[in-house]
Amino acid sequence: MSARPHALLSRSVVFRGRVFRVERDRVRIRRGGAAVLDVVRHRGSVVLIPQPDPGHVILIRQYRHAIRRWIWELPAGSLEAGEAPARAARRECGEEIGLVPGRVDRLAAYYPTPGFCDEKMIFFRCRDLRTPATPLEGDEDEDIRPRAFTLAGVRRLIARGDVVDMKTVVGLALVERRR
User: Fold this and answer.
1) Residue pLDDT tens, the chain, 179 long
2) Are 163 and 84 in the same domain?
3) How many structural domains does the chain have?
4) Closest Cα to residue 124, out of 92, 97, 95, 156?
5) Is the same domain home to 22 and 63?
6) Is 146 in the same domain as 133?
7) What does the alpha-carbon distance between residue 41 and residue 25 come to, in Å, rounded to a whole number?
8) What CATH number does the domain containing 160 carry?
9) Which of 19, 62, 16, 14 is nearest to 38 (CA)?
10) How far apart are CA 111 and CA 44, in angstroms?
11) How many whole angstroms separate alpha carbon 104 and alpha carbon 126?
12) Quick one: CA torsion of 18, 51, 152, 157, rounded to 10 degrees?
């Protein structure tokens, strides 16, 4: 199997937004012929697993317009241009839960939707949480409410459908695997 089964013939940007852009690639397929593929390009993101102690994790309750509902989820955020992932994890932790971590440990990185998007989500456990000297402002389009849960409590939220996003399910599994 070859490393790159598609040869890029042309590329155009069809949308450029604040968080991502969409490129339309025309590619030659290994079997012959050509195909048009739309790809979402994203700088990447960090997913935080804030733990005030080993038996608890902080989730945020946030309204997600795309699915038109409030959900419990792990805090997360996009990398800024040129920003180191660990630095982004510290920044997002302060913005989303109002606490900054003294310790940030990278646990894993995954592509949540590689069929159409190149976003890489990097998971960080955040510990030794403390109140920052200067409060950090979150994004103006966010209405976030943080709350600490036991790990068993998060499993119950998942089981009853109150946690519906993949990053939170994966993050909990990563923490429980490393207990």
Assistant:
1) 556 778 999 999 999 999 999 999 999 988 888 999 999 999 999 999 999 999 999 999 999 999 999 999 999 999 999 999 999 999 999 999 999 999 999 999 999 999 999 999 999 999 999 987 776 665 566 688 999 999 999 999 999 999 999 999 999 999 988 76
2) yes
3) 2
4) 92
5) no
6) yes
7) 12
8) 3.90.79.10
9) 14
10) 9
11) 5
12) -20
Distance CA 151, CA 143 (A): 24
Cα separation, 177 vs 96, whole angstroms? 25
Q: Among 42, 132, 114, 121, which Cα is nearest to 75's?
A: 121
Answer whether residue 1 is part of any domain. Answer: no
